[in-house]
Amino acid sequence: MDDQTHDDAYRGWRASLTTLMGDPALLARWQERRFQFAHRVGALLAESHGGGPAMTGPVLYGVFAAGAGLCYVGQTQEAERRLRDLPVGESHHLANTVPPELWERVIVIRWPLLLPEAPPDEQLLAEEMGRTVCGLALEHALQMATAPPLNSRRRRMSGEWQPRNLAQSRSRGAIHAQSVQGLTQLALAAWSTLAEVEIPERSSVVDIGTGRVVFPTALHQ
After folding, report:
1. Does this model's pTM top 0.90?
2. Can you spell out the DSSP letters for 155-197?
3. Residues in contact with 176: Cβ distance below 8 Å, sequence separation at least 6, in sequence order
């Protein structure tokens, strides 16, 4: 996309929003519509579905957008809170950059359920590290493996963006990532399965036990 096409698309976006918020009543309607959609996506991500359990505790997650593909990979120790807030954006920046109306799929991995299949030494290491550090290690390893663009930069106080070199990171996750390579491969295998799942005809969710994929775009149909 050249600069002119990009600028035209941006102006079209602003014009559409101006129409949608043309008076106080339209603004309220816009607010209600956006929150209802975000709330519905959050419920699909967090609540029980098809007889499966609700999402609680530690998880890895990733958001895919139409066209851009995988945008962001994260982790949380409180899936019941984070997954509901992710599309709403009250404590997470993602929805401010990529509106949930454009999310194609969201993958969630219940990584503690994979631990029994990991090598015995890694199971012991994960216990020693604790779930917080282990979750950060898996997050870093998954980011390295998938290179999501919104994890590759950080905001600066100057209003610009600074590239992040994940390979040179000295964060807790980066330091411990090499210790859980077997668990990382199990998480990546579950991730790949959910990344390739087709949208079902009569549902917006597919749950495989160790993880779940939600299709926000299916809610528009």
Report:
1. yes
2. E-TTS-EEE--GGG--SHHHHHHGGGHHHHHHHHHHHHHHHHP
3. 129, 133, 134, 136, 137
